[in-house]
Fold this protein.
Amino acid sequence: MSGQSDMDDRSVLRPGPSATPVVLADGRRTGAAGPVSRGRVWLRFGLATALALAVVLAAGMALSARAAQREGVADVRRITEVLASAVIQPQLSAGLLAGQSDRITAMDEVVRQRLLVPTDIVRVKIWSGDGRIVYSDAQSLIGARYPLGDEEVHVLRDGGTDAEVSDLSLPENRLERALGGRLLEVYSGIRAPDGTPLLFEAYFSFESVNARRSVLLRSFASITLAGLFVFAGFELSLGYTTVRWLHRERERLLEKAVKMSEGHRKRLASDLHDGIVQDLVGASFLVAGASAELRRGGDQGLAAALGEPSHGIRASIQRLRSMIVDLYPAALQTAGLEVALSDLAAPLRLRGIDVQLQTPAELNLPEHSQTLIYRMVQEAFRSILQHASAHQVTLTVHSGDSTTVVEIADDGVGYLVGDESSAEHLGLRAMADLAREAEALLEVVSEPGQGTIVRMRLPT
């Protein structure tokens, strides 16, 4: 910490607890390009990614469920087609079509041993083209006639398979109502030994279909989740790289803007020093020489008259040199921020104002941040000299991991923040402009007669 050894024990008068900080400028809210902390960026990115993953997962699971349902039904259709051609068709005979009991008994044994027991089939029917039930494991149905639907006629004529949910209200399905639950009936075309087309119908419980659907859905879900994990990893990697690049780019642009501004100031200071100041110095020498010559010649009145413009020229030179220092502080570039801040406090101390500087022993900040702090303190000290009538001023700089806080407190006359007269202060407007350009937060706390606190939070 640096400061003055001759400080008295007075503390800077501060605004009361009822005073509310007023935001003069918030560069963080200047738009979409304003600075946002990495934590907030990651939070937003994480929420957006999680939402996108949730939408994709929901859509993927919905599509997977539909695909699994289709595949489950297709699986049952394939099973029915295989059983019809491999098990049922070889057992067909003219005697079965004629209704001979021994042939029905032989088919019944095959159906019960090879279809009803080892598979999920709960009912079997074999139809002729005229709608007659040639065979069923429910033998009371054998010989009954019911009209065939368009789908059944199509399979009977052209072969292949078809599947539909059983309508248990139909007369032909009266015995299936006792089986309980929903049923899926699957048709497959077969032929008798003499080439007569027949229709094989197998009834499956929906529980078995859903079980197949669940197995397939788990397979689809594992593929979907694996894809989402890969996508999430890619998104996080891309987001991390993008956030780092944006942060570096923002720092680069801010530093470039500050350097350009300082370059303009430096050129202006150089032009003033090498141009107008030198011209004024030359004019001052000429006027001073002419005045001395007149004084030696005895013309005291004219010599005295030339003395006044000579003093005015020298005063202008001093003001211009002070302006040059303000435009381009060489101490900031050569001796560092702490020395430059101490130099800024010198005019206040010459006015008898006690200035306390509280800065860290080692303040490692980027060059553009140091320049911003210098400009902000410069405007604040200038405003204190012009308006505050203060006796004591405290400047505190605290630097954290991601934020540097600069606070200037004075025990001056204070003012009512927000009134028209305060809005006219050039110093406040200048500080607000600096904060917005640097994407910083600038607050002020003040009350009439209670002093003023100006606080800037600068992302570093």
Remarks:
- The chain has two domains: 1-33+335-460, 35-249.
- The two ends are 21 Å apart (CA to CA).
- The longest helix spans residues 206-296.
